[in-house]
């Protein structure tokens, strides 16, 4: 009889941890999001009617659309490059992996020291007499430049994650397939499209899924570099909570982010399933 | 160790009960400021023989403690320092003595500030500290003054120093140098919202919040739209104006004195601190005012001596040097040593001495304070940066502003309160 309880006792700490640190906040978020003076959906109605929400949605999608593909292409290129295993490739590997150790706040501050009015870039350009006054990359009047600085920072910061996943995928590809392909006289392109890519698909998919989900939660870099010049969903959540002192609206925003990420994950899992794995099930 | 602790506890209890002056303050709470106060009060105790216990409180605790003491008829706290808004609330609950008959020899309190110490004919506090926001001007800008505006007009804040004149000036600088050299702290941590609700709104409409969506407010927004053609485009990234002033990215800037101070300390000869311009309804500006009050039922004699000491010229100058609050006593201004502080103090005093002052106090909206300031910033962003129609925007947001006062039951701030 006692034996029956042992497994439950063993997972109890984990269950408690999840309930207290995940379950309760989640429940509270739902409760807050659906309480308002204007009825059950009051907060959501207010959210939909405000221009800021759609603006934040648009910016979040735009940033995701720019950052994620750029990261994927860059990471693929870097992974193939490192996978040649030339002399000293480990050095390059470490070099690429450096940003993995940085928080988004650190990355944003580093980027600010480069692009700020008295930052490195302006100092260099001024000492070379290429410009007379500092170039401004930040501020409401320079939204487009802000956008690209954010994209650049975010690409630099998070590409290594995609790179590591893809490199691991590459290195797990069985060499025998490629040797066989050589025997049959495949061209390089054919090898790439018919063997490597299909086998890489699971890694690419997990990398894409991870990055897209994180891209929807982009916050630190945007908040530090652009404040609310370029509103994004997570930034608005923070804004409503701290500046406007309105946890209900903040919860509504948080739930919208959750909903969007769920839809995106579902989309990936449905449409990007690795075909060759289907038969194995 | 245990004995030592017990001894300290006993000492603290005894101190509170038998100390001559128990001075409760919501100000000077940061460690460095508190230490400064303790040293100064110790000096006072040595020379006067009056013991002063300096006790730091948060406003809600202080309020309930005073209420409890006065209800019980046992006043142990016999001197209080707090922001003027909080003192008004204490006075309206009948917790403060009338200080009308307290006279201090040889000092002249600045008239503008003295005025706010009275509630229903009773004098509820003696002004102690003030802080405000002024404009800092790089002396180079005076070479580009528009016609009809002199350097003296700006420094003294005469009736010619208007928002229209500021526009002409900024425009003139822009046309002659090719640079927009006027700047504001519009960054995320900048104090831009204070300029909007406490400076330009009262200057154009005579009120901070009540006239938010009036015809004059729309005129004001149209003025700002025009002015922003000559405002430095990086303003929206600046949290404080000291660096842009030092880098000469701007020549004319508005900010809190504490945030302008670093620039003036670095180059006291390059800058002047000047009063803000005036609008059609007067010269609107914010004063943060700290007053000293004596609770009901306390004896005046000893607390009055402490008040006398705290408002003496020497002490007022010491506070300015160490803490950055400005004097409230005319005589103290002459005692400020040459240099950066003098430059700043002159600007502050000139501003508070202008005849057309419209003094604004920051409204105390508690949990809605954030939304209040954000609403002004939102209106600005939508009208000036996004080019929306001002009449439409203020109509939309004005409702919300009035609702905040209703929701929190907050008192209307000056100058709005005086409109009735």
Structure report:
The complex is a heterodimer of chains A (281) and B (420). Chain A has 281 residues and is mostly helical. Chain A is 77% helix and 0% strand. In chain A, helix 2 crosses helix 12 (247-271), helix 5 (104-115) packs across helix 7 (143-171) and helix 7 crosses helix 9 (188-216). The mean pLDDT of chain A is 89. Chain B has 420 residues and is of the alpha/beta class. In chain B, strands 1, 2, 3, 6, 7, 8, 9, 10 and 11 form a 9-stranded mixed sheet that branches. Chain B has 17 helices and 11 strands. The interface between A and B is medium-sized, with 17 and 18 residues.
In a few lines, what is going on in this structure?
Helices cover 77% and strands 0% of the residues of chain A. Chain A is mainly alpha-helical and 281 residues long. In chain A, helix 2 (42-49) crosses helix 12 and helix 3 (51-83) packs antiparallel against helix 9.
The beta-strand count of chain B equals: 11
Helix coverage percent of chain A: over 70%
Helices and strands of chain A, in N-to-C order? Answer: HHHHHHHHHHHHH
H/I helix tally of chain A: 13
Helix content of chain B: 40-55%
Structural class, from secondary structure content of chain A?
Answer: mainly alpha
Largest β sheet strand count, sense and barrel closure of chain A? none
The helix tally of chain B amounts to 17
Report how far apart the termini of chain B are. Answer: 61 Å
Kindly provide the radius of gyration of chain A, computed on alpha-carbon positions and rounded to a whole number of angstroms. Answer: 24 Å
Return the average pLDDT of chain A rounded to an integer: 89
Helix and strand run of chain B: HEHEHEHHEEEHHEHHHEHEEHHHHEHH
Mean pLDDT of chain B: 90
Radius of gyration of chain B equals 23 Å
